[in-house]
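TA notes, week 10

Several of you asked for a full example with nothing omitted. So below is the full record: structure tokens for the whole chain, then the designed sequence directly under it. When grading your own attempts, check the secondary structure regions first.
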């Protein structure tokens, strides 16, 4: 009998009424059983939990949780990961560069290797298509620039040696937008030209670096005689591999806008180094 009474008590209806304290006017009322009351309270609690979860997951309220990183911290973490990846790649390229320099000085053949790209970027969808008109244009430009040389004489370096009557081939014709300024750590000359303009080697030499960096994009470096190195940055495409022997005026790359930190449009950043010291290219080459 007691069990039946307990079961029936859950079905008893109770009235909840709200009155005006002064006029005793009935404002709101509802009728619920014990089971309905517990069901209503449970639904309210579940709704509050779901609403709180949505607010934390999709709004900035989650940043007030102790230990949760804010937006700036997450961006800094991502940028640090990108730079670390690029730094590892740069160290690998530097070591290979010095090994190739030592091999060339020793009269050996430099070691060919495929430079690693930044793993934080995807290059699967990048394609470079060459049309018949593009190939004819390249041949025409190479013929026009074949005898475009500028003659210069190096000043006496720290060791007292001279490089006399060195003939430099112009890497490309364009407008100089940023000059050599070592005070601002700008160790080269920026030349703007039309898209798909070819870039040529300034002297005979051997390619000692051909790869990609986060800051300057596709870059190629050539070791020449008399301890001269020429550097070509922000290319759209590299046409020579490491260890390739090139002639003055030979096409080595296509002008571009690659790199994320130091570029603002299609241009070539060109550097000349002699005995490990950067020199002003405009003193020796007419762009």
């Amino acid at each position: 009998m007691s069990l039946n009474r307990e079961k029936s008590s859950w079905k008893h209806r109770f009235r909840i009424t709200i009155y005006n304290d002064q006029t005793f006017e009935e404002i709101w009322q509802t009728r619920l059983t014990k089971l309905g009351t517990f069901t209503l309270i449970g639904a309210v609690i579940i709704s509050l939990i779901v609403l709180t979860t949505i607010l934390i997951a999709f709004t900035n309220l989650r940043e007030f949780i102790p230990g949760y990183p804010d937006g700036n911290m997450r961006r800094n973490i991502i940028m640090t990961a990108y730079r670390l990846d690029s730094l590892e790649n740069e160290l690998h390229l530097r070591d290979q560069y010095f090994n190739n320099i030592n091999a060339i000085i020793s009269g050996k053949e430099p070691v060919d290797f495929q430079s690693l790209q930044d793993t934080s970027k995807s290059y699967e969808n990048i394609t470079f298509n060459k049309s018949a008109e593009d190939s004819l244009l390249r041949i025409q430009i190479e013929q026009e620039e074949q005898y475009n040389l500028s003659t210069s004489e190096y000043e006496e370096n720290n060791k007292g040696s001279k490089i006399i009557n060195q003939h430099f081939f112009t890497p490309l014709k364009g407008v100089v937008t940023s000059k050599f300024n070592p005070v601002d750590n700008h160790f080269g000359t920026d030349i703007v030209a039309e898209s798909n303009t070819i870039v040529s080697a300034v002297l005979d030499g051997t390619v000692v670096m051909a790869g990609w960096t986060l800051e300057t994009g596709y870059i190629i470096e050539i070791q020449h005689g008399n301890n001269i190195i020429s550097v070509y940055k922000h290319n759209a495409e590299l046409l020579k591999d490491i260890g390739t022997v090139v002639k003055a005026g030979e096409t080595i790359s296509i002008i571009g806008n690659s790199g994320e930190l130091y570029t603002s449009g299609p241009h070539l950043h060109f550097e000349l180094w002699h005995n490990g010291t950067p020199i002003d290219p405009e003193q020796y080459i007419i762009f």
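DSSP finds four helices and 14 strands in the chain. Use that as a sanity check on your answer.
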